[in-house]
Design goal:
The protein is mainly alpha-helical.
Length: 475
């Protein structure tokens, strides 16, 4: 059979069917991921202040932030192997049920310990996105996988923009009742489960289950060997360090804006909408053209410089509360009762310092908004650009393993950043974590100018593929 005959059989229109993405097959995955992400992003600006409501200090909030990635590090590989053996759909459902249980417990919680348990349950079962990405790999070929992953990247952008907006609406409608957004998040999680049951079709055929190719395990030894790799070792160090610095911003931002500007959970939700819009613009519209025009090296330099400048500018944000701030009302919001029974009584359980409301104004908020532009630009550029550079500096048969190690370094940073920067926040004040992160990234920018490895070989299309692939959230 010649090629022309084969083409006409596979696709009577004259094109190989593998060249075109089957949107009907990918659409359920896109919608499920989007709905699932909405549940997670609703709680993103709320979690540190939810912990503060139960008397947590900055160090304890940092430990809470680390609970999810630590448990995910334990549970995700196991769930990934189970999905290879039993199929994507049952494992996706188990993961979603764990997320639903975590969100529901968070809504019902009356103590800090239950909040920790809720995050650990969610983390242990937290393979939703990874399983969805595996389903996309099952449903695509190398020619159209980049396009499919781009749709998942779009779901991330939408989720990180819409989720905090829903949180703001839920808090406003409930009079800043922190339990309500958790139940709303649980509702979205339940919706994603129903969609998976009714709409999602298994993508891993029965004959392929249990017969997957062996994949190298990610271990501490493998990570140590990768660091000394002459072509990508420094890039992996940069990957860890930038995620470490940006992870401190993600986990401590709500506490910082509370202590400097008096922003409560609703106010922080609006800020996170702003961040989501910037990330969507950067990863959805800018990084592709910039990568093709300037290359990965330029993007990495720009990302490091922007993130360093942004973190330093955030650190020196003027401590002027927003015009609508009332210390008494915010203090009451952060108590277990939520009632105003006198300022001293209301603030007695709060371990995060609240600003005085004698001199309010717009300077602090405007400054912070401007500072977030370069910080978010840098954070949005670095991870996909570094991964793209890594794929171009190893042999083709090493790409999968190196990207797995890159993800391991990101996970390690997500686990360490909230603990370290939470302790720094507690011991040295709200400015110290962001200033330290900015100085660290600035030093790495200087080192990168001298230590950035030369490209070993061209890897056609790798930059576009990695730029389109979303990074896993740290929840």
């Amino acid at each position: 059979m010649n090629r022309k005959t084969r083409v006409s059989i596979e696709n009577p229109n004259g094109a190989l069917s593998s060249d075109k993405l089957d949107f009907k097959r990918i659409l359920p995955v896109f919608v499920i991921v989007l709905v699932d992400l909405l549940g997670m992003t609703i709680l993103l600006p709320l979690l540190p202040l939810y912990a503060a409501k139960f008397g947590a200090n900055a160090m304890t909030v940092g430990l809470l932030g680390a609970a999810y990635p630590v448990m995910q590090f334990i549970g995700a590989p196991l769930l990934g192997r189970l999905s290879d053996r039993y199929g994507r759909k049952p494992v996706l459902l188990v993961s979603q049920l764990g997320t639903l249980a975590g969100f529901t417990l968070m809504g019902l919680t009356g103590s800090l310990w239950f909040l920790f348990v809720a995050r650990m349950i969610d983390g242990l079962s937290g393979a939703n996105i990874a399983t969805a990405q595996a389903a996309i790999s099952d449903s695509t070929t190398e020619k159209n996988r980049t396009q499919a992953l781009g749709l998942i990247g779009a779901a991330f952008g939408l989720g990180f923009t819409i989720g905090p907006a829903i949180a703001f609406a839920a808090l406003t409608a409930s009079g800043n009742n922190y339990h309500v957004p958790a139940f709303v998040a649980a509702g979205f999680s339940l919706t994603s489960i129903l969609l998976t049951i009714v709409w999602f079709k298994e993508t891993l055929p029965a004959e392929r289950r249990g017969h997957v190719e062996h994949k190298a395990e990610v271990s501490l030894g493998a990570m140590r060997e990768a660091i000394v790799h002459p072509q990508v070792g420094f890039l992996l160090v940069l990957m860890f360090a930038q995620q470490f610095a940006f992870g401190g911003l993600e986990n401590l931002f709500s506490m910082f804006s509370l202590s400097r500007l008096g922003l409560n959970a609703a106010g922080n939700s609006v800020i996170f909408v702003f961040l989501g819009v910037i990330i969507t613009i950067v990863q959805g519209g800018l990084i592709g053209p910039w990568s093709r025009k300037y290359g990965d090296r330029w993007l990495i330099y720009l990302g490091l410089a922007a993130l360093a400048a942004g973190l330093v500018l955030i650190a020196v944000t003027p401590g002027q509360p927003v015009p609508w701030y009332s210390r008494q009302h915010v203090a009451a919001e952060l108590t277990s009762t939520g009632h105003i029974n006198g300022e001293a009584a209301a603030a007695g359980n709060i371990q995060i310092p609240l600003p005085d409301d004698a001199h309010t104004g717009w300077l602090g908020l405007v400054w912070l908004a401007v500072a977030l532009l370069p910080a978010t630009l840098g954070g949005g550029l670095l991870s996909p650009s570094l991964n793209s550079a890594i794929t171009k500096r190893v042999e083709p048969n090493e790409i999968g393993g190196m990207l797995g190690l890159s993800a391991a370094f990101v996970s390690a940073a997500n686990a360490l950043a909230p603990v370290v920067f939470g302790a720094v926040f507690q011991l040295l004040g709200s400015t110290a974590p962001f200033l330290a992160g900015g100085v660290l990234v600035g030093i790495l920018w200087l080192l990168a100018r001298h230590l950035f490895p030369a490209q070993m070989r061209p890897q056609a299309g790798a930059s576009r593929a990695i730029a389109s692939a979303p990074s896993l959230p740290s929840h």
